[in-house]
Design a protein that fits this description.
This protein has about 300 residues and is of the alpha/beta class. The protein has 13 helices and eight strands. The longest helix is centred in the last third of the chain and has 15 residues.
């Protein structure tokens, strides 16, 4: 039997979110080690599950872990923004009852130092898909001052982004994440709960994997798919992702899309595609926080697709 490498975040909240689904298809857009997938399959014995991941290591592990569920499980490799489009074209969308996306870097990738995600890594990689052309070494050692400033400000929300970008350029080339984080440690925010290099690594990782673009593409595909019964749950780990999800769900729930200055509604007032289930994001409870430190920043928002749920 395999040793399960980690406990999936918000596991109780995920099970509860999909607890009323007694048939049809649930899509796990970010399978990873298969933690959420296996729990959903156990809790919903009559559903089928389609799992997506771009990391071959995750696919190899989870293919073995989920084998006991037989033909109830189908695993597809690729970026979820692309694979979800293929799935939506291949299956009857009325059968899709749930969609889960656990956005961001997985425990599998963080724990393997050779992947270059950790500030202690001896290389600079950070690719979720190891066959992708862009890696962290290219970003750090070849991006211009303006390009570095952009990702440090937009993806790391670092106030001294200009100084950090200049210091990177002055000290490159860098060959490891450890060397990079050590060089810039004194310029990073000195928080008590996270390593000083966390926001720097986050910014580079988001750029390498186009994480925000992936999330936006996923949400757009779901909006355009004509889903009538699907419950969509998105787990995010930082404010940039959560903001995108929150704003998109608000947009999906709007029935009237007339400009605010319009005297009266002229749009037909029928543009809502469902309702927001979680007005505030679901977060880990105290006992989960104690057993899984990575759950402290996890937030899950849920939306119910379908006109009848408005």
């Amino acid at each position: 039997m395999q040793n399960t490498p980690h406990i999936p975040v918000l596991y109780r909240e995920v099970i509860e979110t999909f607890s009323t689904i007694d048939e049809g298809i649930i899509i796990d857009c970010t399978m990873g080690y298969g933690g959420h997938s296996s729990m959903i399959l156990d809790a919903n014995p009559n559903i089928k599950l389609i799992a997506i991941d771009q990391d071959q290591t995750a696919i190899d592990f989870s293919s073995e872990r989920l084998a006991k569920y037989g033909d109830r499980v189908s695993i597809k490799k690729g970026r979820f923004s692309n694979v979800i489009k293929e799935i939506l074209e291949e299956v009857d969308v009325s059968q899709i009852k749930g969609i889960l996306a656990d956005i961001g870097v997985s425990s599998l990738q963080l724990d393997q130092k050779e992947r270059g995600f950790s500030y202690e890594s001896d290389n600079l990689d950070m690719r979720m898909d190891k066959s992708a052309p862009l890696n962290a070494e290219t970003v750090v050692n070849e991006y211009t001052q303006d390009e570095l400033e952009h990702i440090l400000l937009e993806y790391g929300e670092l106030r001294n982004y200009k100084k950090i970008a200049s210091k990177i350029i002055s000290n490159r080339p860098f060959s490891s994440a450890k060397e990079l984080s050590d060089t810039l440690k004194s310029d990073m925010p000195q928080g008590k709960k996270i390593h000083p290099a966390t926001l720097l690594m986050q910014a580079i990782r988001i750029e390498v994997n186009d994480e925000l673009g992936e999330l936006k593409s996923l949400l757009n595909s779901l909006k355009e798919a004509g889903l009538t019964k699907a419950r969509v749950a998105i787990i995010s780990f930082h404010s940039l992702e959560d903001r995108i999800v929150k704003q998109e769900f608000v947009s999906w729930a709007k029935s009237c899309i007339c400009p605010a200055e319009a005297f009266r509604c002229e749009c037909g007032n029928n543009h809502s595609i469902g309702k927001i289930v979680t007005r505030k994001p679901l977060m880990a409870k105290d006992d989960e926080l104690k057993e899984n430190v990575r759950s402290r920043s996890a937030k899950m928002r849920v939306f119910q697709m379908g006109k009848k749920y408005e």
